[in-house]
Amino acid sequence: QVSPALRTPRLPVWLCSVSGRHGVLFGTDSRLLSHWKSERTFHLYFYSGRQEQTRTAHLTIDTHSHPWEEAQSEDPCSPGKRRPALEMAIRTKWAGATVSWNGTDPFF
Fold it and tell me: How many structural domains are present in the chain?
């Protein structure tokens, strides 16, 4: 028997498989589950349990960023425009969002 809390989580949790590696992306704000206005700027955390990840990555997601403010002269395929796979996975839920890694070196 599955507990009702597991069927309807109290906090947002996503199990991720990014580039063949598994991890957990989660938030600590329950309003993300029910209040769309909470999706403007919010924090998510990612943990994979892999040896190279020494601490949980703290990410700030901004869904109202302005993509036209990025440098227009760069080729979209240039190394400066490439994004980590985890950011691209986050953008499957929040298209066009910017992700700040808050001092953590991006991985995945």
Answer: 1
